[in-house]
């Protein structure tokens, strides 16, 4: 039987990424993402809603998110849904479904933001499995002198 677990979201951070490290030294960051949704109800009225998601990023991607994005930053991300459960110290069972992001694209500064960091943001960040080290196919293209712009 075929299966697919893929999520694509575009929205704004609801809180700054919280960077932590596992006991073996792996970086992990979590942040919230708000995604606006507009639809027309049965009465023909336009209704605006917001959906909130918990996002988890790992390794170098977690460190880059911590450095370049902040509360209010617009991002596009791709990943998968993951559910996990645990028991509290009081014996209560808890569970959560979250998005584990594998690719994150920083879409720029939020409007009216005076966020810290001020430097250039990388356009897209992918996990190491998706990028070949030192490979830049754009540099290999010979455009000659006939650039159309």
Overview of the molecule:
By secondary structure, the chain is mainly β. It has a single domain, classed as Beta Barrel (OB fold (Dihydrolipoamide Acetyltransferase, E2P)). The chain has 1 helix and 7 strands. The chain has one helix at residues 59-68; strands at residues 7-13, 18-21, 27-40, 46-58, 74-87, 93-106, 124-126. A 5-stranded mixed β-barrel has the order 1-3-4-6-5. Strand 2 (18-21) and strand 3 form a beta hairpin. The model is unreliable at 112-121 and 128-144 (pLDDT under 50).
List the helices and strands and how they pair.
Elements: E1 7-13, E2 18-21, E3 27-40, E4 46-58, H1 59-68, E5 74-87, E6 93-106, E7 124-126
Parallel strand pairs: 4-6
Antiparallel strand pairs: 1-3, 1-5, 2-3, 3-4, 5-6, 6-7
